[in-house]
Amino acid sequence: MAEKLLPCPFCGSDVKYNEKLEAVFCHGCDAMRTGYKHKRGSAISEWNRRSPDLRAGIDNIIEDFSGPLTGEDAVDIVDRLQQL
Ligand SMILES: [Zn+2]
Fold first, then answer.
1. String of b and e for 37-59 (b: at least 16 CB within 10 Å)?
2. Domain encompassing residue 44
């Protein structure tokens, strides 16, 4: 059975493999992972690949800023996200 596509990491929308263009596209934000001309299996694997470091970094930020946020917190969050 074919590997299932994960939702878009940018907007959370469902994505689809386009047979004609041989690429995975997000229908919410037009994100594309691999470029064109990737056979279904490799295009899906590439789309589903996520950086564990990025995920861990986001989880740490969420943990550190779990309460009500100030404007200063928002600036700190943006700074930390830009460093990931
Ligand atoms: Zn998207």
1. ebeeeebbeebeeeeeeeeeeee
2. 1-50
Q: pTM, whole model, 2 decimals?
A: 0.56
Same domain, 8 and 41: yes
Residue ranges with CB less than 5 Å from ion ligand 1: 8, 10-11, 13, 26, 28-29, 31
28-78 pLDDT, tens digit each: 998 887 777 888 888 998 899 887 888 888 889 999 998 899 999 999 999
